[in-house]
């Protein structure tokens, strides 16, 4: 009887330790994120699931073209692409991104822009008034004509960034690390 009681308490301790370790990892290291909507197509699609690295920006700064998840408001987290960093000037003209008045290629969009032809602007002309403020990033969805992003909500505070998108784990046939 004492042996069964000891085994029972051993299992309880193991479960408690596992729950604590899981909570610590989800609070400080990684979390999962489910894409909701079409704003990042063709890079990500509604319902896809990702692991988000919460440590990446505690140890470093966002880089241009990183995919990030950030707190958009009390009820919603968004996935977007970092386009502008603090101090950058941003504009789009004739479907070309200019950062600090230099044309910057967006290789992740080349295929979809080419498929739509030259008669149609994938990204409407836009110019950020002033520079991206210190402590903020300028983000866009890859589906430029169907994205609620910095063009409407303004630059995103770095403190609101949850983390960098890392591994796509659903659907299984698309599993892999995001670039």
TrEMBL record:
First-level EC class: hydrolase
An annotated GO BP: signal peptide processing
Subcellular location: Cell membrane; Membrane
Bilayer topology term: Single-pass type II membrane protein
Catalyzed chemical reaction(s): Cleavage of hydrophobic, N-terminal signal or leader sequences from secreted and periplasmic proteins
The EC number(s) this enzyme carries: 3.4.21.89
GO cellular component: a single term: plasma membrane
Protein's UniProt keywords contain Glycoprotein: no
Active site location: 39, 80
PROSITE patterns assigned: SPASE_I_2, SPASE_I_3
Residues that span the membrane, as ranges: 12-35
Keyword Transport tagged: no
Domain Peptidase S26: residue ranges: 10-170
GO molecular function, one term: serine-type endopeptidase activity
Keyword annotations: Hydrolase, Membrane, Protease, Transmembrane, Transmembrane helix
Assigned protein family: Belongs to the peptidase S26 family.
Protein name in the entry: Signal peptidase I
């Amino acid at each position: 009887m004492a042996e069964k009681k000891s085994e029972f308490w051993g299992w309880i301790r193991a479960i408690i330790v596992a729950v604590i370790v899981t909570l610590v990892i989800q609070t400080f290291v990684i979390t999962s994120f489910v894409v909701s909507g079409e704003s990042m197509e063709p890079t990500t699609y509604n319902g896809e699931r990702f692991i988000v690295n919460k440590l990446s920006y505690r140890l470093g700064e966002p880089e241009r073209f990183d995919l990030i998840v950030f707190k958009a408001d009390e009820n919603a987290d968004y996935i977007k692409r970092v386009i502008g960093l603090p101090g950058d000037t941003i504009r789009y003209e004739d479907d070309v991104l200019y950062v600090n008045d230099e044309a910057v290629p967006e290789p992740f969009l080349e295929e979809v822009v080419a498929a739509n032809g030259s008669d149609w602007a994938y990204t409407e002309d836009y110019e950020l008034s002033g520079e991206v403020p210190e402590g903020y990033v300028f983000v866009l969805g890859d589906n430029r004509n169907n994205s609620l992003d910095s063009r409407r909500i303004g630059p995103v505070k770095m403190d609101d960034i949850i983390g960098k998108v890392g591994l796509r784990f659903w659907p299984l046939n698309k599993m892999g690390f995001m670039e």
